[in-house]
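Rather than argue in generalities, we reproduce a single protein record, letters for residues, whole numbers for local backbone shapes, just as it appears below:
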Amino acid sequence: MNKFMEFLERFLLPIADKLNNNRYLSALRDGFMVALPLIIFGSIFVVIANFPFLDKLLSEDAYTAYQNALGPASAATLSIMGIFVIIGIGYKLVEHYGLDAIYGGGVVALAAFLILTPQVLEGVSGVIPTSTLGAQGMFVGIFTAFIAAELYRFFVQKNWTIKMPPGVPGAVSRSFSALIPITLTLSVFLIIRIIFSYTPFETVQNFIYTVIQQPLTVLGSGLPATIVAVLLIQIFWFFGLHGQIIINSVFDPIWYALNDENLQAFQAGTELPNIVTKQFIDTFLVGMGGSGMTLAVVILIFMIGKSRQLKELGKLGGPAGLFNVNEPIIFGLPIIMNRSLLFRGYWRQL
């Protein structure tokens, strides 16, 4: 056991620490946090608009009018969630460098993504398909936000900026200061778009989807990858690292893409193609009662526990666990650095 613990501490802990402090993964994680309230809002109205048996209680016209009235709630959030994630990632990454996050981060990342996005729908030009603004375009948006932020940082650090006199208002000064870095950054993406138009893929979206996104979504929807992800979450938590945040930074783009495929299938009235989605992971694997599904531990404490100390801990952690807050259990039981729990379970101490 000691050798195994030494192995985990020597090899796994440094890797987890690097992942936790990686600026790109941190920006990716925070970018999704920016979009989270909007995703929740859209999800709530998807449920409200599709209550079971509602189509039986209302006439066909009334039911259609009801769904049309609530439809914009999800169309303006879930269907274009990629935009919010892109803005969040660009903003957070540029903020990490201590630069003007709104100009060089959110605005540039979004503009670069739109430059790469084909603006043709069924032969009509000047129209952007909403599918490319949602989870389907997520991977393109992530790479675009990272590259745009780095290019902007590079041009700013080269001092390729316009310096305004001291008396100029701050907002005007920042706008002119960002003009040259933004122009150069967006020009790079325009060149990339032109280059891809002469390839068999035609667009960057087609290239990323074929080469990266599609294989990863197939891998991420499978049982082996899901088991590995959930296992790593618990191992990271054992060392006191927030395993769910670390793993979500890597897997969230995949799980949200799978979720979007289900949403589109549901709206089309066809069978849902994926079991593993973001909601599935959070609800049935790691989220019930908090990371690690510790609500089951609280229930077992009350059912078979004999320790008075643990029962008091259960009274403290139980109500919070109903709202997926389980820090009292993780730190109070404790779960972190508890070898007995990792290897043999907590049965003897209960």
Remarks:
- The chain has 16 helices and two strands.
- The longest strand covers residues 120-121.
- Strands lie at 120-121, 124-125.
- Residues 155 and 184 are 8 Å apart (CA to CA).
